[in-house]
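Continuing the batch. This is chain 6 of the set; chains 1 through 5 are on the previous pages. Same settings as before, nothing changed between runs. Recording input and output for traceability.
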Amino acid sequence: MHEKLVCKTFTQPPVSDTLVSYIEKNYPDTNYYSAYETSYCGFWIHKKLIELDVNNIVVNPVDIPTSDKDRKQK
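Output for chain 6:
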């Protein structure tokens, strides 16, 4: 997302190196920011994203806004 505009959506394997390769290829010379939903055992992904120069924060999944459609599907 860029401000309130969705630039592109995609699906990928859950591999941080793959994500960083994708964003560097498609959005070069950019500052990257992410929010990662995790429980107590997912902080290794946060640390890896930080190592790869992604400005990442860890958030509680229940604090992520969802649509009515998302709530019905979960």
